[in-house]
Design a protein that fits this description.
It is a single chain. Helix content is 71%, strand content 11%. The chain is of the alpha+beta class. It has a five-stranded mixed sheet with strand order 1-2-3-7-6, covered by helices on one side. The protein has a two-stranded antiparallel ribbon with strand order 4-5. Helix 7 packs antiparallel against helix 10 and helix 13 runs antiparallel to helix 14. The radius of gyration is 38 Å and the shape is elongated. The relative contact order is 0.06.
Length: 422
């Protein structure tokens, strides 16, 4: 065995030990660095003694016992990670194949010999280690912080590759015989690993999408809650104003009565009653939540000179949760009101018609509003690219789908129509 081969074997030993260390989550201290350095020197010394005393083929045969197992135990001592200490060694061994393959590629291109292979392997050792240390090691270490099942999933390939390599090339000559079962085995493993990876990624993406949907739904509920708080705040302010003005009203009425201006007092009383009546919750149906929402939006529509007709027959108790009914009606009416506001800005009439009823445990409602003719649909759902818009439609769709209901959006004769069955 020539000198270059011995140097190369020492380089790959250091490469594997250091790579195993950077693949582990280790809180490095000065003491641990000295332990790693001293342990690496001892392992290389043992390899050298056995190699020169017997031969280096024996070193290769007993490499798992004299190098890999001690390295794994060293990683466990430094990181206190049981399973991952061994997986990091197998992963580092797998990366040694990258080093060797790069050298074989260069030797093949340059038509070199075995000596050239040793030189190239030695030359690429440091650059490859630095690349793996900077780019791959953080990702590999992050897996060690996951559950044992996840560690097994990512550690299974290096373990299989390690066992296959020693079984077919070192302890037997099955690879040299060219048996198709042996030659194609790692391709089979890679294919299965790819399929498992695709299935797992698909499942995680689906779960992530569901979580995002739930998060968005929660955000929409928060927005709706803020709207309701604003309505309550306005109502509270109005009540405070009425209480504050009550003394003035009574003083005025008293003055009218003292001066026998009874007709003037009666007109004043009617005006106050009309003002109070205009701000009270109208009972469109038996459902209190629906009445609150309908009344709030009817008041907003009246302020903006938008005609709003409501026909509702919703019972007190419905199959839809109160919060979901609030989200559903509020978002639908908010979108209808917004569309009519755009028309009023162009001095065009704006109209909203609401029809809602319950039958056989199902809630049905239809909201028709004036709109422009430039509504864009994608897969039957209206979309907009304006920032901050389109949230209400997504909320309606998500909520109806959660109840396994049906929704339909359409435009006809400058009328936007939303139908929902839930």
């Amino acid at each position: 065995m020539n000198v270059m081969m011995i140097i190369n074997k020492g380089a790959v030993g250091i490469f594997g030990i250091l790579l195993s260390a950077v693949f582990c989550e280790i809180q490095w201290t000065r003491r641990k660095k000295w332990i790693l350095t001293g342990s690496a020197a001892v392992l290389l010394l043992v390899q050298g003694i056995i190699g020169f005393a017997i031969d280096f083929d024996t070193v290769r045969y007993f490499y798992p016992i004299i190098t890999h197992i001690p390295t794994a135990l060293l990683m466990y001592f430094l990181s206190k990670q049981k399973l991952w200490a061994f997986i990091s060694v197998f992963t580092a061994y797998l990366c040694c194949h990258v080093r060797r393959w790069l050298a074989l590629l260069i030797v093949t291109i340059c038509a070199g010999d075995f000596n050239m292979q040793n030189v190239v392997e030695f030359v690429v050792t440091v650059p490859l280690f630095l690349l793996l240390w900077k780019f791959a090691a953080p990702a590999v270490r992050s897996i060690s912080l996951h559950s044992v099942s996840v560690q097994w999933q990512f550690g299974l390939i290096p373990i299989i590759a390690y066992a296959f390599d020693y079984l077919t090339q070192i302890y037997t000559d099955w690879m040299k015989t060219g048996s198709p079962v042996v030659v194609e085995f790692m391709s089979f493993v890679c294919s299965m690993a790819y399929l498992v990876f695709v299935l797992r990624t698909s499942k995680e993406n689906q779960l992530r999408y569901q979580l995002e949907q739930e998060q968005e739904n929660l955000n929409l509920q928060v927005v709706q809650a803020v709207r309701e708080i604003e309505l309550l705040r306005e109502s509270q302010q109005q009540a405070s104003t009425y209480r504050h003005d009550l003394r003035h009203h009574l003083q005025y009425l008293l003055t009218c009565m003292e001066n026998e201006r009874f007709e003037q007092a009666k007109v004043y009383i009617h005006d106050i009653c009309d003002e109070i009546e205009g701000n009270k919750v109208i009972n469109y149906c038996e459902n209190e939540t629906a009445n609150l929402i309908f009344s709030a939006f009817a008041g907003r529509a009246k302020e903006q000179d938008i005609s709003m007709k409501i026909r509702a027959e919703i019972p007190r108790m419905v199959s839809v949760a109160e919060s979901d009914l609030c989200i559903l009606l509020s978002n639908a009416l908010e979108n209808a009101l917004h569309a009519c506001q755009k028309r009023r800005e162009k001095r065009l009439p704006g109209e909203i018609e609401v029809s809602a009823y319950e039958k056989n445990g199902k809630l049905f409602f239809q909201i028709t509003n004036s709109c422009e003719s430039d509504v864009i649909f994608e897969e039957g759902i209206p979309v907009t690219h304006a920032p901050g818009h389109g949230i209400g439609v997504r909320s309606i769709c998500m909520l109806v789908e959660r109840y396994r209901g049906i929704y339909q959006f359409s435009v006809r004769d400058n009328k936007f129509i939303l139908r929902v069955s839930i």
